[in-house]
Amino acid sequence: MILPSILASAHAAVKAACPPGSIAVDGTIGNGHDTLFLAECVGPTGHVYGFDIQQAAIERTHARLQQAGRRERVTLFHTSHHLLAEQLPEDTRGHVRAFMFNLGYLPHGDEQVITQPHTTLHALEAATSWMATGGILSVALYTGHPGGEEEARAVIDWARSLPAHAYQVMWQQTINRNQAPSLLLIEKKHVKKRGDGLS
């Protein structure tokens, strides 16, 4: 296929924004695939912080990182992503190069435990404050489960409201497939202050 999947698009954008030595956050670690990807991006001098409310997700991600020899690059929090501002070290504020969120439920887990619009929006809003200039916020949206469409609409509406002078927002979706997942990418721009570029 020539056209990239949402996973390929998310990884390409994150990798471009997240060189070795970076700080990154996985807001929904799930089975640890994106957590490991971020750990590879940041390298031995960077660090990844991961969040999930389910113990199964913590255990699976820990095992995946351990097997890959990347456990020391990651700090895992067994808590909701909406508490990320309370958990991330204060000195990382404004320095996080990438946030990744996969909404919905834990694959091969309890499908009744899903991300919720109010906590997701709280987490995304906090993420914009912790992002570095040039940083990327990636959100995979899934609508094939109860509550998924409501959450996706809420997230897209929130993203539309972000000021264009401060953020570039793109939305990728396959439109000829029912309930296809979609991808939201948000880049934090350099906001010019009065006098920038003047001699």
UniProtKB/TrEMBL annotation:
Keyword DNA damage set for record: no
Domain of life according to the entry: Bacteria
Keywords of this entry: Methyltransferase, Transferase
InterPro entries in the cross-refs: MnmM_MeTrfase, SAM-dependent_MTases_sf
GO MF entry, a single one: methyltransferase activity
Biological process terms in GO annotation: methylation
Keyword Transferase assigned: yes
EC number(s) on file: 2.1.1.199
Protein name per the record: 16S rRNA (Cytosine(1402)-N(4))-methyltransferase
Natural source organism: Laceyella sacchari
Upper lineage: Bacteria, Bacillati, Bacillota, Bacilli, Bacillales
GN (gene name): mraW
